[in-house]
Amino acid sequence: EVQLVESGGGLVEPGGSLTLSCEASGFTFREYEMNWVRQAPGKGLEWVSHIGYSGTTRYYADSFEGRFTVSRDNAKNSVYLQMNSLSVDDTAVYYCARKVVTYWYFDLWGRGTLVTVSS
Amino acid sequence: DIVMTQSPDSLAVSLGERATISCKSSQNVFYSSNNKNYLAWYQQKPGQPPQLLIYWASTRESGVPDRFSGSGSGTDFALTISSLQAEDVGVYYCQQYYSIPNTFGQGTQLEIK
Question: CA within 20 to 30 Å of A3's CA: A23, A112, B63, B94, which one?
Fold first, then answer.
């Protein structure tokens, strides 16, 4: 089955760090660029970051540049999001999403993992 | 950044009736070199992740029922459901992928009247 499964979410205190994982299956992972998109409770979708096929190319939305780091391990069919200096505003469901070849829309999404930042 | 604005924020339509959601971009998302509008639509059912419905403004993703259609060009777009079914309840988002950062509309909540 073609799917993405996120993990690593949970409760973290303000100022803390967390690393999310997303494991892909059912397709040739190394042939796709991957993204993270988040959704705060009751809110809309917000693009977070992008990583290219080999991991060399990385982009971030301005709000996350310098705090978040995206990486991938093609041998493990996985992409990661390391999040530092977390604030309550980072509370959200974080989705892993597969980008179609060449263009920036997303044809496969995981079910997401909830990150709650609270003291 | 390109700002995407959807209207209305919420919409209630009777079963079997037509539903139309509008999406406007703050900048043109039509690329003349390939004659394509860089606009996608997603559906998010309650408790589920978003699902791609339409890309290139009017191309349905594989498996999407033909009651869903997309239209528009440049800065003004629409998603139409020709005959609303109960399973269409959810939130619909437009997204521009013309430039980075790709950006989403705020979403339109679709309900049954």
Answer: B94
Smallest CA-to-CA distance from B46 within B8, B15, B90, B105 is with B90
Look at A103 and B49 and tell me if their CB atoms are within 8 Å. Answer: no
Cβ of B64 under 8 Å from any chain A Cβ?
no
What pLDDT digit, counting tens, does each position of A62-99 carry? 999 999 999 999 999 999 999 999 999 999 999 999 99
Question: Whose CA is closest to B61, among B71, B76, B73, B51?
Answer: B51
Contact A47 B48 (CB under 8 A): no
B54 contacts in chain A (CB < 8 Å): none
Q: What gap in Å lies between CA B112 and CA A85, rounded to an integer?
A: 42
Mean pLDDT, to the nearest integer, of B13-30?
Answer: 98
Torsion over CA: A103, B23, B37, A65 (sign): negative
DSSP code string of B31-89 = ETTTTEE-EEEEEE-TTS--EEEEETTTEEPTT--TTEEEEEETTEEEEEESS--GGG-
